[in-house]
Structures are given as structure tokens and as C-alpha cells.
Design brief:
The protein has about 575 residues and is of the alpha+beta class. The protein has four domains: about 60 residues, Helix Hairpins, CATH 1.10.287; about 200 residues, 2-Layer Sandwich (D-amino Acid Aminotransferase, Chain A, domain 1); about 100 residues, Nucleic acid-binding proteins (OB fold (Dihydrolipoamide Acetyltransferase, E2P)); about 90 residues, DNA polymerase, domain 1 (Orthogonal Bundle). Helix content is about 35%, strand content about 20%. Strands 14, 15, 16, 17, 18, 19 and 20 form a seven-stranded antiparallel β-sheet that branches. Strands 5-4-9-10-7-8 form a six-stranded mixed β-sheet. The radius of gyration is 26 Å and the shape is globular. Bound molecules: zinc ion. The site of zinc ion has 9 residues, from helix 11.
């Protein structure tokens, strides 16, 4: 794993963040590989959003990812708001539009969900502000909260679809996704559920979303008392039981606000104050090491602190090198930062009175001595079951089988002795039926899915190796000329003579073919690989080879010609 996966994102400038996001998008969408976790990817997006909230990447990713039944034109446009990052910003905005010291403003939460409008019995997303997506099919899951009423959505309303903090805690710990896993945070859950084409599984599990009326919580305040009351209003809003990422301030006089009109993107009569990077101090109690595909990731266990209305018990420490660089030890006072929905992380440490080394020498799972690989600590034991689970999960993702997530693979390893990808393909229907939580129908579906996953083209195997700049297209060109075996037997020099790729790519390809020889063997013994050489030019993959589809917006590009296109937002 390259060094640049774990590092302090806050040190990057806009250009480099954009480069990284583009790189990971490419890995993900063209090569079908996940190099970083969803959380880490979100962290990059949030960092970019902080620097340049109007960047096209931020806008594309923040656009709700919904399965829709068509377009809806809003009677009144739903524009996004201009942003403020300090009280000074708000004050100078208010100074521009107040007609007297008594000008009345409304201070409201800025909810962190999907904006929606319900009118004429149709529920629609904001979309581009003028035209949204019809998401009425999700209504059975949605409860409306408005002044004096909680219940089915039954009246015209403009608001935000989200999951209340208490619902997320109480309900969502028991709700499983198709792959058997649970949602990590409410933002992911809302996005995931809104992207489902079929909600029956969620209905069965009593999943609940809430549509909060924007007008329900609204604090009137006059200009002359705004500064004095601001801290109290922020605190009041921060403690509400909803996921939020800021505060909205708007002119109370709607007619006047509308008369001010809009800038190119935003209404002049409203502004959003963004919560960002809230820091608190706590005590580092312990460090837990969780397993990744190759290496161990340190997670700090801290004395619980409230940040932005959420109790934080764990914080990211990124990797072993980060712990060394920042001289973080157990018993230290640590500064935790939480920005948006990102996993909170430790930014610095003050030495505590009694300190204990936070690093470990041996694998907590198998006891083997750990080795350093770049900034990380890794277990070198190929049979270590914890590492095996991560590797297997990654391999399965690479062949596009989402349903077969980590929880299910864990079950297969524990109860059926599965160790390799081949073991998974050798499973019988009767084996899957033995697994907890599987009934005849779900077991049959999974069995069929595994069987289908078996057929891949050789260039997909090549692309799955994640060689820099060798995506599906290049891989296909190469595999039209050579078989996988021929490639594997080539010397460095011979590979340089492949005219589709330059010397840099050929060297990287040669190295990766050697380094990942075990993984390739595993794939070739488990899959039915179709040779491209001698088959003429074919079209691109017919199965989604990208593993989990993180961003539907991008996902769409891959499926441009499939029926799914209709159901996803532009
Ligand atoms: Zn181990």
C-alpha cells in the first residue's frame, strides 16, 4: 500500500486534494479497485469542500444519490445557500441587507441530509434547484416532522430527509444492508436507502427516515441582538437530535428577501454558517489495532467528549508513523477534531503524567511479530485469519460481488472453513443454508450470485491488480495481444516492447504481476477466465467489475447504456 494513503489531509492544498480525488475515482471506476476506505474518501471530499465549496467535484458528490421515478420541475427554485465560516461573515452579510437595527432574522439548523419538496402528492429532491428527481416511492419509509405534527407525509412541505440521531442509534444498529453489514453513519444510511430501487427489504426491517420541515425549528432574532445571542443560538441548535452541518440565517420578511433576488447560485436573503473543524480535548485511554487488507490501523479509544452534539469515544490515528511523528502515547491529553461526518481524528497530543507506548510489536490476532511497511505496521503471516478476511473481502469486491460483504465472509470463514476465493466458489447451496440469517430464497440468490461472479474476462483480472494507469481499457488492449500466462512469463525487457504502454507502465505492470502472483493464482484457480486474445474487439465489461458502487453519480457513467441510467440522477 503506497505511503500516500495515510497522511494529514489538512496539509494539502486544493490542487493536490483534487488530484487525489480524481485518482481514487479513476481507481474505483476504471480499475475497479478500492485503495482507500469510504471514510477516507469522504475526508478528502470534506477537505475540498472546506477550501472550495463550489468545486464541481463537491457539487457532483453532494448531489443526492437517489433511485428516481423521473424528473420534477419545482414551482419555486430550491437554490443552495452562500456560506459563512465565522460570525464576522454573518454580520457583514446582515449589514448589507438590514433596513434597520430591528430587522428580523430567522436562525435555523442546516440539516445534513437530502433536501426535498413535497407538493401535489409528489416528493422530489432538490436536484439542480430547478428540476429534481421524483422519489415518491420512498414515502412509505418517511415520517414528516413539522410544527405540531409527526406522521405520514400528508401536506405540502419543504425540508430535509435525514435520520434522527436517536433513530440511528436505536433502529439502525439492527438494520442490515444486502451485504449483511450495517450502516456506519446516518449520512451513509440516508444515501444508501435513497439509492435503493426496491425498499421492501428496508420496510421489512422497519427502517425509518424523517422529513424535517425547514420551518419547524426557527429562532427569530433582531439585528441589534444577533451578536449577543449568537453563541446561545449555536448551542441550542447544536444540541438538536438531527445530523446537521451548520446553521441557516435568513431574513424573516419573505417578500423583502425575494425582492433582493439571487446571485448566480444563491439567494441573497439567506446564508449558511458551516460547522467545521470543531476541536475538543480528551484523554487517550487505549489504542486498538484494527485489521486492514494488508496492515493494522490504530484507533484511539478516548474519554468520551461531546463534539457538535455527538458523543465521541473513538478517534482515528491514521497509522503507526503518525503516532511516532506526533509522539502520541497512551495517557496523553489529545486534541480531537471533528469536521462534518468524518471520523474524528487526533491532531495533537500533550504528554500525560504516566505514559505508555501506543505501538505494538506482535499481531493481536495471531501473535506473529509485526513488520513495518512504509508508515504502517503489518502482520506478515499469510495465514493470519484477520488479514485473510480482509484480503478475501477485497478480492470479492474486485469481482463485483457486493452481497458477499465482510460479515458474510466472516461467517463463511468461521462456520465453513473458507480460506480462499476458490473456497467460496466451491460452496454448495446447502453450505450457504447453514449460515446464520440465510433462508432458502436469500441463500439461492447468493449462490447464484457467486456462480455468476465466476465468469470474467482476462482483462478484468489484469485491471484488478491496480497497476497505476492500467485501467480496464488499457488492460483490454494488452489482453487482445497476449494471454495472461504469456504476460506473466515476460521479462522486464519483453514487456517494454508492448507498444500500447510506455516504459513506466510496463515496469509497474511487470512488478505487480510478480508481486501479486499469489493473488493472480487465487483468481485463476477460482474464476472461469475468458481469454481475449484472438477474440476480436469486444465491448467493455458486461458485469459491474467495480465492487461497491460508492457514488451513483459516477456509477452512472459506467452504466450509460444500461436501463439503470434512467433511475439515477443526472
Ligand atoms: Zn496476524
Amino acid at each position: 500500500m503506497p505511503d500516500w494513503i495515510n497522511f494529514d489531509i489538512s496539509k494539502l492544498d486544493e490542487q493536490n486534494i483534487v488530484k487525489l480525488i480524481m485518482h481514487h475515482n479513476k481507481c474505483y471506476w476504471e480499475m475497479g479497485m478500492l485503495e482507500i476506505s469510504d471514510e477516507r474518501y469522504d475526508e478528502l471530499i470534506r477537505a475540498l469542500e472546506k477550501i472550495n465549496p463550489d468545486h464541481s467535484l463537491v457539487i457532483a458528490i453532494n448531489a443526492p444519490k437517489v433511485a428516481s421515478e423521473g424528473k420534477v420541475t419545482h414551482a419555486k427554485a430550491m437554490l443552495s445557500l452562500d456560506k459563512a465560516y465565522s460570525f464576522e461573515d454573518i454580520d457583514s452579510w446582515a449589514k448589507k441587507n438590514k433596513r434597520s437595527e430591528n430587522e428580523l432574522y430567522l436562525v435555523e439548523p442546516k440539516y445534513d441530509g437530502i433536501s426535498a419538496n413535497y407538493a401535489d402528492n409528489v416528493l422530489a429532491t432538490r436536484g439542480n434547484g430547478e428540476v429534481g428527481e421524483n422519489i415518491s416511492a420512498k414515502l412509505p419509509l418517511i415520517e414528516l416532522e413539522t410544527t405540531g405534527y409527526t406522521g405520514p407525509v400528508d401536506r405540502p412541505v419543504r425540508g430535509e430527509i435525514l435520520i434522527r440521531n436517536d433513530d440511528f442509534k436505536n433502529i439502525y444498529s439492527n438494520i442490515t444492508k444486502k451485504n449483511g453489514g450495517t450502516y456506519k453513519n446516518s449520512r451513509n444510511a440516508v444515501g444508501g436507502i435513497m439509492g435503493l430501487l426496491d425498499i421492501s427489504d428496508m420496510q421489512r426491517q422497519h427502517a425509518k427516515l424523517t422529513l424535517v420541515d425547514y420551518e419547524m425549528i426557527s429562532h427569530p432574532v433582531k439585528y441589534f441582538e444577533l451578536e449577543k445571542r449568537w453563541p446561545e443560538l449555536v448551542e441550542k441548535i447544536e444540541n438538536l437530535p438531527y445530523p446537521m452541518d451548520g446553521i441557516v440565517i435568513k431574513l424573516a420578511d419573505e417578500a423583502y428577501s425575494e425582492a433582493l433576488g439571487n446571485t448566480a447560485h444563491h439567494p441573497r436573503g439567506q446564508i449558511a454558517f458551516k460547522f467545521s473543524g470543531i476541536r475538543k480535548e480528551s484523554l487517550l485511554k487505549e489504542v486498538q489495532w484494527s485489521f486492514g487488507k494488508n496492515c493494522l490501523t490504530p484507533v484511539a479509544e478516548i474519554e468520551p467528549v461531546e463534539i457538535g452534539g455527538v458523543t465521541i469515544r473513538h478517534a482515528s490515528l491514521h497509522n503507526a508513523q503518525n503516532i511516532i511523528d506526533k509522539d502520541i502515547q497512551i495517557g496523553d491529553r489529545v486534541i480531537i477534531e471533528r469536521a462534518g461526518d468524518v471520523i474524528p481524528y487526533i491532531i495533537s497530543a500533550l504528554p500525560g503524567e504516566s505514559r505508555k507506548n501506543a505501538l505494538i510489536d506482535t499481531c493481536p490476532n495471531c501473535g506473529k511479530s509485526l513488520v513495518r511497511k512504509g508508515p504502517e505496521l503489518c502482520c506478515p503471516n499469510p495465514d493470519c485469519s484477520a488479514t485473510r478476511l480482509k484480503l478475501l473481502t477485497a478480492a470479492v469486491k474486485n469481482i463485483g460481488r457486493d452481497r458477499l460483504g465482510e460479515p458474510n465472509i466472516q461467517k463463511m470463514m468461521t462456520h465453513l472453513g473458507v480460506m480462499t476465493l476458490k473456497d467460496i466458489f466451491d460452496l454448495k447451496l446447502s453450505d450457504i443454508l447453514q449460515l446464520e440469517g440465510f433462508k432458502a430464497k436469500s441463500a439461492t440468490n447468493l449462490f447464484k450470485e457467486i456462480a455468476n461472479a465466476r465468469n470474467v474476462a482476462d482483462y478484468q483480472v489484469l485491471a484488478a491488480l491496480n497497476v497505476p494507469n492500467v485501467g480496464a481499457n488499457i488492460a483490454k488492449k494488452i489482453m487482445n495481444e497476449y494471454t495472461l500466462d504469456e504476460l506473466r512469463q515476460m521479462t522486464d525487457e519483453e514487456m517494454e516492447n508492448i507498444n500500447t504502454i510506455g516504459p513506466e507502465r510496463s515496469r509497474a505492470l511487470h512488478d505487480q504481476l510478480a508481486e501479486q502472483s499469489g493473488f493472480i493464482n487465487e483468481l485463476t484457480s477460482a474464476l472461469l477466465i475468458k481469454q481475449s486474445k484472438g477474440q476480436g474487439n469486444e465491448t467493455l465489461p458486461t458485469i459491474c467489475f467495480t465492487g461497491k458502487c460508492r457514488k451513483n453519480v459516477l456509477f452512472m457513467k459506467l452504466w450509460r447504456n444500461k436501463t439503470v441510467t434512467k433511475r439515477l440522477p443526472q
